[in-house]
Amino acid sequence: MRAGGGSVMRAGGASVKATDMKTHSHTNGHHESSTELSVHAALAGKHVLVTGVTGFLGKVWLGMLLDLVPGIGRVSVLVRPPRRAKGDRAVAATARFEKIVATSPALRPLRATLGAALGTYLDGKLDVVAGDVAEPLCGIDAGVLERLAASVDLVVHFAGLTDFEPDPKDAVEVNVRGAMNVADVTARLRVPRLVHFSTCFVAGQRDGDVFETRATGLMPDGRPLDAQLAVATLLARADAAEAGSERRGAALRRVRAEAGGVYARECAFPNTYTFSKAIAEQLLAERNDVRVSVVRPAIVECARSYPFPGWNEGINTSGPLVWLLAGPFFELPSRPENHFDVVPVDDVAKGTMLVVAAALQDTPLDVAQMGTSHQRPFTVGRAIELTGLGVRKHHERPGASKLEKLLFRYLDAVPVPAESDSMFAIPRLRRHAKTVRTWLEGARIDETLPSPLKKLVGQQVSRTQLRAHMATSGLETVLRRVDQMLVLYKPFIHDHDWIFRTDRIDALSARLAPAERANFAWNVRDLDWRTYWLDVQIPGLAAWCLPLMNGKSVPDDAPAEPRLRLAGSTLALPANVPAAHGNGAHIAPVANGAEARA
Amino acid sequence: MDTAAFYRVEGAIVDRPAIAAAAYLVANTQHMRDRFLRIGGIAAAASIALGGDRGLSARVAWSGVRGMSEDRLVVLGEEYGERHLVPNVKDVARQLLAESRVRKHRIVLVSESLDVIVGPLARALGVAAEDVVANRAEMNAELRATGRLCDPIVGGQLGGGWARAFAKERGIDLERSFVYGASGGDGMLLSAVGHACAVTPDRALRRLARDNGWPVVEA
User: What is the span of the domain harbouring residue A415?
Assistant: First the structure.
């Protein structure tokens, strides 16, 4: 896992021993500086390699970078070719990214600003690098890697698996080994700067202020954390659970995932995701061949303004909760007074811009948390109440049925203690559904009818009974899933009250050049939660997240004509072809399907 | 100095009394059990109002919002204003407001309701937020209503002292200003302003109008 950790390559092939880097790394652990910070100056002419640009946060940041920092020298994006892609990996990865550039709503501002000039602008700015963080050295072609190593100034690693309870094998592969593989690539750079994305919730099962300290080698409850042993045990637990189970397919994956979750909680982490991120942070902290800045966002949610208010991608953290409260579930086991640390994605993207600029100016932050609980607290209770009010507002619009209006006007979601067994409590509803379903399964209602009546309506009664049985079974399934979901969310809305300190990003932002404050300042203090939740978050989730939860899809933007075609990466060209730093056309508009390569 | 046109919202602009707004808010508290309990308080406030003490009635009615969050008051206030006040502005009120604008009067809305309820109405009528005189619910540190109203409380009976103080503060010439009221409780306010007018008045105000020679506008 630490391939490449022994030495680092400098430009010209000179090797520097790890011990030298160690000294360097220690002195660069955390620099406090009072000099003015300029994102534009720090990034001017620089070359960054970015992973995870197909994800929610990565895409917003990439769009912001290309849109608002036109002086950036070059951006190489690591893109995983689709799993089922045949033929050339680079072509497949390029095609995947091409679609994102052309159709992702996250890149609307970039497309709007540049219009037909998008291809020209990106000419010389962008490479698509085929690879996969889960593979050694991210699966990057050796020749490409060599060129990247000679040119890249900094790596930004967004890629990760964010499911709360994934199969431990996947979590380890992507979140732990993936981070190490990216660090291995970084270690080959002339100056090995890495901005690594983690999560605030590596704080684990504890309460109160969480300061921005590096991984300490300890679990949240103070026991020693041996990262390598933790990985081995996590995988072994999942394998043991699999061996002892007769389930197959998705059910078996659930068994493995649950076993991983149990071990994560034994180690005082809320779930496998946070555990895997904590292990990755620990392993990175143990490396001395890369200068790591760890960014820990809290719960990343809909954009406040960039790319546009409400933008969200995929099923995010609060989506299922809003889905739940927008349905016929009115009680949420939670502690209303606990902090609910939600942070808009564009605030994290701005903060990331600052962290990247600081790292490039060689005054890196070793850890920067990005949340709101410290400077603009929001609580679970307020989120529940505002969600209820937002749903009410939503259902007042034309198109809602009378029943919906009645229900949502008069039944508000309320927080209840986890042990609540009221008439609306999910466990009780599950019990009732099971009782009814079992009764419907065994009862022969038509047999109880008098003979003449049976002849008359017997068949109809049987059909109705069958329909009722199916409906009850469906309800039972939904309730089971809701119950499972609530177990996953319990640490975040009930068990723990974290206040993630954000002193460092705040201090960094205070250094920002006045002219750049409008675009990049960290200013969560001015968040108006009521406006954000009712006018941004709820409509954003309704547009981009809830349809996915209801099994529907959300539309991408229509691609503009002529279609953009990416030529892939010239980094893969033979050595005698000049690398396209500022002069190569990697993306060019192509008319009528004809390829245009520079 | 400016001239103003004071409009008593309850009666002159819409027929709905402030107590209806209070009832709407308490009927939509977050917890179901509170709704039933607090509606009882509204019934008590209504009976006090019928007894003639509108100030006490307002205090009792608005005490029902105790514990409600600022978020809920704002959202429900807007909902009530948009759904029940804005669509029910009297035609005669619209005509009078139009005349006030022609005369370049500064339009001031005076209401016993909460500011969060009158706000949407003011916006719909094009009245500046600073020209809305309404009650404000007192909030605690957790931004939950204490059940008390902030001083000064706008009750059913506003005196001439209030009108003079308001006019002095805003630089308004009271003698040249207009006022529109609808109930007997508005009598003192109407007496304090140069040009008073009764809009679809109740029996008490109609008598006062006759005695004082104020014009009466019927719907």
Answer: 315-340+378-497+528-551
Cβ neighbours of B76 in A, within 8 Å? 389
pLDDT band at A32 (very low <50, low <70, confident <90, very high): low
What is the pLDDT, as a whole number, of residue A23? 35
Q: What is the pLDDT of residues A502-530, one digit of tens each?
A: 999 999 999 999 999 999 999 999 999 99
A293: left (phi over 0), alpha (psi -120 to 50) or beta: beta
Q: What is the pTM of this model?
A: 0.85
- Whether residues B30 and A412 touch (CB distance < 8 A) is answered with yes
Among B102, B83, B85, B37, which residue's Cα sits nearest to residue B63? B37
d(CA B30, CA B34): 8
Nearest in space to B79 (alpha carbons), one of B33, B137, B39, B28? B28
Which residue do the tokens 């951006």 mark?
A75
- Read off the DSSP letter of residue A494: I
Contact yes or no for A271/A202 (Cβ under 8 A): no
A592 within domain boundaries: no
Q: Has residue A7 got a pLDDT over 70? A: no
Beta bridge partners of B114: B135
Cβ of B75 and A534 within 8 Å? yes
The string of pLDDT tens digits covering residues A371-427 is 999 999 999 999 999 999 988 877 665 666 777 666 666 678 888 888 877 777 777
- Closest partner residue to A385 (CB to CB) among B30, B32, B79 is B30
Give the DSSP letter of residue B71.
H
Structure tokens at A414: 């309320």
Q: Quick check: A175 pLDDT over 50?
A: yes
Extents of the domains making up chain B: 4-217
- Candidates 3.40.50.1000, 3.40.50.2300, 3.30.430.20, 3.40.50.1700; CATH matching B4-217: 3.40.50.1000
- Half-sphere exposure in the Cβ direction for A415 (13 Å, CA): 18
Cβ contact A412–B31 (<8 Å): yes
Pairwise CB contact (< 8 Å): A382 & B71: yes
Cα A146 to Cα A52: distance, rounded to the nearest angstrom? 21
The helix/strand/coil state of B194 is coil
Residue type for A218, please? L
Residue A522 within any structural domain of the chain: no
Q: What is the mean pLDDT of residues A274-287?
A: 97
Mean pLDDT, rounded, for A300-309: 97
Q: Contact, B189 vs B158, CB < 8 A?
A: yes
Among A409, A414, A530, beta carbon nearest to B71: A530
Structure tokens, B115? 């500011």
List the beta strands (DSSP E) in A330-485.
Answer: 331-333, 342-344, 367-370, 414-416
Contacts of B138 (CB under 8 A, 6+ apart): B145, B146, B147, B148, B149, B150
Q: pLDDT for B104-138, tens place per residue?
A: 999 999 998 999 999 999 999 999 999 999 999 99
Residue with tokens 């038509």: A446
Closest among A413, A426, A424, A425 to A538, alpha carbons compared: A413
Give me the number of domains chain A comprises.
1
Assess whether pLDDT exceeds 70 at residue A571. Answer: no
A371 belongs to a structural domain: no
The backbone torsions φ and ψ at residue B179, rounded to the nearest 5 degrees and listed phi first, read -145, 140
Residue B168 and residue A242: Cα distance in Å, rounded?
A: 82
Contact check, Cβ <8 Å, B71/A385: yes
Planar angle of CA B27, B31, B36, nearest 5 degrees: 45
Of the pLDDT bands very low, low, confident and very high (cuts 50, 70, 90), residue A150 is: very high
Lowest-confidence segment of A84-93, A363-372, B156-165 by average pLDDT: B156-165
Q: Mean pLDDT over all residues of chain A?
A: 85
Looking at residues B189-211, what average pLDDT do you find?
93
The reply to whether A504 falls in a domain is no
**Rounded Cα distance, A125 and A585, in Å:** 8
